[in-house]
Design brief:
Shape of chain A: elongated
Number of helices of chain A: 4
Strand order of the largest sheet of chain B: 1-2
Order of helices and strands of chain B: HHHHEHHHHHEH
Number of helices of chain B: 10
Shape of chain B: globular
Helix content of chain B: over 70%
Radius of gyration of chain A: 21 Å
Largest interface: A-B, 53 and 61 residues
Largest sheet of chain A: none
Oligomer: heterodimer
């Protein structure tokens, strides 16, 4: 029995686990962390696709030109992915700080849109 | 009911995604047996430009233009974060007399900070400068260098970092890093090879002086990434340690 599909299944599992966290989240910092987990599933998928059986890292500092290596293209994409992910996380956390300060709550279920808020203010 | 709605939708969507997604993944060729036509060509091109690290060759040489976009995303995110958190600081300062929070640091932490600081700086510099030869590069090295500044912050005190920040050094480094990348690209236009195309002799593969402009690009990226990380984390720390004087005492 081969386990060729296992790396893909792990990526899918991490993706779904992150989505579950996003849906049930009760704290915005938790939501942001779940989003990074969802994103990290894409790293796993990319690296799994790039992996070659018997291959090593695509860095030729100490190996010969014709050694079997993993695909450098998907690894470079993963690098881009990580950098953009860090940038997004920083921005979202800064927004969370603002939300906590201005709305007094970081529970996504208790946050209402500005429209609803102003409508209730007018009614009350 | 309204509260349950996201959960119900999430479960339904998740189940649908699980079924279709796992079917799609099952149809992929097994891990380890995927053909890599682009990977092989990327490696050939990396050798053509005498770059030992094929990943850096892809990021900075073959996809140099994309990496420019990536750098600008990072710059925009750093600016956005600093702006979002700057207003809060101003508010807090208006509200109450404040001070920067308790400065009690364990001697052990201080010692570890002092010991690790030079090591981290050395490793960071190495990772940046050898990016085209061994695993590493500007993004990775820049992050290591940024963490060195935080060791200094732990070992000395936040005022050191504060002085660095208020001197505008970090903002300048942030801008210079991004500008450096563009400038190296534009130099290619002047030299006649094209925007972000190699215009320096590529040297010998596996030599420190190889890969043409890639080491220069790595350095400019490291400056930008390091400055961005220090700026952003400093802003968050400011939020954490900015305590009204009444509460602190």
């Amino acid at each position: 029995m081969t386990l060729d599909w296992l790396p893909y299944a792990v990526a899918g599992w991490v993706f779904l686990a992150g989505c579950y966290g996003l849906v049930t989240s009760r704290h915005l910092v938790h939501t942001v962390v779940c989003l990074s987990i969802v994103q990290s599933s894409t790293y796993l998928l990319l690296l799994a696709i790039g992996w070659t059986r018997g291959g090593t890292a695509p860095v030729y500092a100490d190996i010969g030109r014709h050694r079997k290596v993993a695909d450098p293209v998907v690894q470079a994409m993963t690098l881009t992915d990580i950098v953009v992910g860090a940038a997004v996380t920083a921005l979202l956390l800064a927004l969370t700080v603002q939300v906590a300060k201005r709305r007094g709550s970081v529970d996504p279920r208790e946050l209402r849109s500005l429209e609803e808020e102003s409508r209730e203010e007018r009614a009350g | 009911m309204r509260r349950q709605l996201p959960l119900v939708l999430g479960v339904l969507g998740g189940a649908a995604l699980a079924v279709t997604g796992f079917r799609a993944l099952a149809a992929l060729p097994g891990a380890g047996h995927v053909p890599h036509p682009y990977g092989e060509r990327a490696v050939a091109d990396a050798f053509h430009h005498d770059t030992a690290n094929a990943v850096v060759a892809v990021t900075l040489d073959q996809r140099g233009f994309d990496t420019l976009g990536e750098e600008l995303i990072l710059l925009a995110a750093a600016i956005g974060t600093v702006l979002l958190l700057r207003r809060l600081t101003a508010e807090a300062e208006e509200d109450a007399p404040h001070e920067y929070g308790p400065g009690e640091i364990f001697e052990g932490v201080r010692l570890v900070g002092y010991v690790l600081l030079p090591v981290t700086l050395l490793v960071g510099g190495y990772v940046v400068l050898h990016g085209h030869l061994s695993p590493g590069g500007g993004f990775q090295g820049g992050t290591v260098l940024a963490s060195a500044l935080y060791l200094a912050y732990l070992a000395a005190d936040h005022r050191t970092l504060e002085r660095l920040r208020t001197a505008g050094l970090l903002d300048t480094a942030e801008g210079l890093g991004a500008f450096g990348y563009v400038a190296i690209g534009l130099a290619g236009l002047v030299a006649g090879s094209g925007f972000l195309a190699d215009w320096l002799p590529t040297g010998t593969v596996r030599d420190l002086r190889s890969s043409g402009t890639l080491p220069l690009l790595n350095v400019s990226i490291a400056v930008e990434v390091g400055a961005a990380f220090v700026l952003v984390v400093a802003k968050f720390l400011e939020q954490a340690i900015l305590v009204p004087r009444e509460e602190a005492s």
